[in-house]
Amino acid sequence: MKLRIRLEKIAHMRVIYPEFVIDTIDYPRLEGKNTQEIRNYVVKYLSEFPSQSGAYDNLKEELENQKDYYPLNGDEDYQIYIEKEDERASG
User: Fold this and answer.
1) Distance (Å, rounded) from C-alpha 48 to C-alpha 34?
2) How far apart are CA 87 and CA 77, in angstroms?
3) Alpha-helical regions (H) of the chain
4) Contact 82, 3 (CB under 8 A)
5) What's the CA gap between 1 and 5, in Å, rounded?
6) Which residues on neighbouring strands pair with residue 4, listed in sequence order?
């Protein structure tokens, strides 16, 4: 009997996006809001903020394309999938 075996490793990663600075003078909708209101607004409308460098359509795209990955120390999970060759052919 032939078996197909596939291993999948699940590792935890931290993704760090670059910091950016905006001036609320350029974003009048942020004027007078508290930090939580600003956070909610930015989360909702990040794709409408202009790119800082001008190389992207918006700030969200710019941030997503400038990220660093760092593996987190800790447990890694493994999944092993086993399938009989004949089950695959009939399934």
Assistant:
1) 20
2) 26
3) 35-45, 59-64, 85-90
4) yes
5) 13
6) 83
Q: What is the pLDDT of residue 47?
A: 92
Domain, as residue range, for 16: 3-90
CA dihedral 60, 49, 62, 12 (to 10 degrees): -30
Number of folded domains that form the chain: 1
Distance CA 74, CA 1 (A): 37
Q: Which token pair is 15?
A: 């993704």
Each residue of 13-68: pLDDT tens digit? Answer: 787 877 778 888 888 888 888 889 988 998 899 899 888 888 999 988 988 888 77
Q: Are 34 and 47 in contact (CB under 8 A)?
A: no
